[in-house]
Amino acid sequence: MIPRLIFLLLVFTITTPGQGQVDYRPMQQVLEKGIVDSMFVFGKWNKNGKTEIRVKYLGQVVTKTGRIFRIMNATWLWGLSPRATSRVLIFNEMNQYLGNYRVTMISDLPDRLENGRLIFTNQDDPDCDSKLVTKINFTTGLPKAFFLKCKGSSGDIYTFSSE
């Protein structure tokens, strides 16, 4: 319950005043450009409470049934420290938000999308084995959850949420 509350509070900081729903315009702008593997930054974090959003479009997947998923990484920097909230965001072919996978750390975001699979390499996490690579297949549909390997058989499970 608490992680959802934090996410909702963060998302509402990027809404347009008076709107009752999340403003995905920064993500929509990135999707419309269609530029893969480039980082786009919206806002600028500072100690006075400004929020920064970093968005990277990874590409799209066409499932075996013809459904299209457009996938991007998003990180919100907020708070005095700053704190980071990271998500793998999923949109459909019309750039409509479908849901997300909430990851624990920025280093848990996927590195790229290749042949319909999200690729995680552990390159930015000194606590994990950088030789381990996790590949999550999206060609058969959206996984309800996936296991991100860290060391040996340890790692984290991330679940899809449409909220």
Explain this structure.
- The protein is mainly beta and 163 residues long.
- It has one domain (2-161).
- The protein is built from two helices and ten strands.
- The protein has a seven-stranded antiparallel β-sheet, covered by helices on one side.
- The chain is globular and about 45 Å long.
- The two termini are 12 Å apart.
List the helices and strands and how they pair.
Blueprint (H helix, E strand, L loop, with lengths): L1 H11 L12 H9 L5 E5 L8 E11 L5 E11 L4 E10 L4 E7 L8 E3 L2 E4 L13 E4 L7 E7 L2 E8 L2
Antiparallel strand pairs: 1-2, 2-3, 3-4, 4-5, 5-10, 6-7, 7-8, 9-10
Give a short summary of the structure.
The chain has 163 residues and is mainly beta. It has helices at 2-12, 25-33, and strands spanning 39-43, 52-62, 68-78, 83-92, 97-103, 112-114, 117-120, 134-137, 145-151, 154-161. Helices cover 12% and strands 43% of the residues.
Question: Which features characterize this protein?
Answer:
2 helices, mainly beta, 43% strand, 163 residues, 12% helix, 3-stranded antiparallel β-sheet
Tell me the β content: 35-45%
Question: Between the first and last Cα atoms, what is the distance in angstroms?
Answer: 12 Å
Shape: globular
Q: Low-confidence spans: pLDDT under 50, at least 5 residues?
A: 1-21
Number of helices: 2
Please tell me how large the radius of gyration is.
16 Å
Q: Output mean pLDDT.
A: 85
> How is the largest sheet built, in terms of strand order?
1-2-3-4-5-10-9
